Automatic annotation (TrEMBL):
GO terms for molecular function: oxidoreductase activity. Keywords: NADP, Oxidoreductase. This is Short-chain dehydrogenase/reductase SDR. It comes from the Bacteria. The keyword NADP applies. InterPro entries: KR_dom (IPR057326), NAD(P)-bd_dom_sf (IPR036291), Sc_DH/Rdtase_CS (IPR020904), SDR_fam (IPR002347). SUPFAM superfamilies: NAD(P)-binding Rossmann-fold domains (SSF51735). Belongs to the short-chain dehydrogenases/reductases (SDR) family. The keyword Oxidoreductase applies. The lineage of its organism: Bacteria, Pseudomonadati, Pseudomonadota, Betaproteobacteria, Nitrosomonadales. Residues 7-187 form the Ketoreductase domain.
Length: 261
């Protein structure tokens, strides 16, 4: 029997990229999936591809009440929630001095408050259940400096701190928490980036001399990390090297990334 058969998984940012692939993979492995996103067209496509055992909800992760209701409704309908993937995220690129308050607020609302809302209400539910696994998506920018992505790196560093701290707190209560550190994945996130002051995020990423992996490969790596209950789920292999080197030589790696982009 598949480890995901009969499990209940909740995924945010499910209409595109990594979240979409995660939903498909979980569904194919026998899980019941509650998929949420702002993008209704992407959700409709996902529903069409998966059919039964997949429920979609239009959800803004920045809206705390909506996130709480979504989690509680899934638990009431299914009897429990086994996995919560706080995956939704955006990127904003550009010089620090050009970032206005609105751009800061938007990325913090989605990338950080979105993960806080999911973690807080998911954790409350899992405390009542006595089990569950919260999986928060950060980034390599959550463990190393990335120039002209200061706001993105700020939110992702916070997601790492939130997740690793909550993991220790949840341990005594049977709750698992993991944080995902993907390398480059071939999704829409760069082409839909908010660019500030003439920055071109997509072009900057294309200059990085590293290939992107497919969202499906990312989803499989995440589920392997979840099955192994890893604290940090880092992939692919080159990214484990980058993360290791940036811990050992933080200044050098920040300088290199700055030059590459
Ligand atoms: P994507 O752009 O393909 O998918 C992100 C999804 O999040 C979209 O469907 C979007 O509609 C949704 N979303 C945005 N704001 C939302 C909100 N307020 N409420 C609900 N949903 C919202 O991007 P991708 O690449 O799949 O990103 C998923 C996560 O992976 C993000 O947290 C991102 O920061 C992270 N990541 C991605 C990397 C990559 O190379 N693609 C690398 C490192 C991290």
């Amino acid at each position: 029997m598949n480890a995901h058969d009969g499990k209940v998984a909740l995924v945010t940012g499910a209409a595109s990229g990594i979240g979409y692939a995660l939903c498909r993979e979980l569904h194919a492995r026998g899980a019941t999936v509650h998929a949420a996103d702002l993008n209704e067209a992407g959700l409709a496509r996902l529903r069409q591809e998966c059919g039964d055992r997949l429920v979609t909800t239009r959800l803004d992760v920045a809206d705390e009440d909506a996130v709480r209701d979504w989690i509680e409704r899934a638990a009431a309908e299914r009897g429990r929630v086994d996995y919560l993937f706080n995956n939704a995220g955006i990127v904003v690129g550009g010089d620090f001095e050009a970032m206005d308050r609105a751009a800061w607020r938007k990325i913090i609302d989605i990338n950080l408050w979105g993960v806080i809302h999911g973690s807080q209400h998911g954790y409350a539910l899992m405390r009542r259940q006595g089990c569950g696994h919260i999986v928060n998506t950060a980034s390599t920018a959550g463990v190393m400096p990335v120039a002209r992505s200061t706001a993105y790196a700020t939110t992702k560093h916070a997601v790492v701190g939130l997740s690793t701290s909550l993991r220790e707190e949840g341990r005594a209560h049977g709750i698992r928490v993991s944080v995902v550190i993907p390398g480059l994945v071939d999704t829409n996130i760069f082409s839909t980036a908010t660019n500030i002051g003439g920055h071109d995020y997509d072009a900057a990423i294309r200059k990085v001399p590293i290939g992107k992996i497919s969202p499906q490969r990312a989803a499989r790596a995440i589920l392997a990390g979840v099955a192994a209950n890893r604290q940090y789920i880092v992939f692919p292999a080159y990214n484990r090297l980058i993360v290791g080197l940036s811990r050992a030589f933080p200044g050098v790696m920040g300088w290199l990334i700055n030059r590459a982009t």
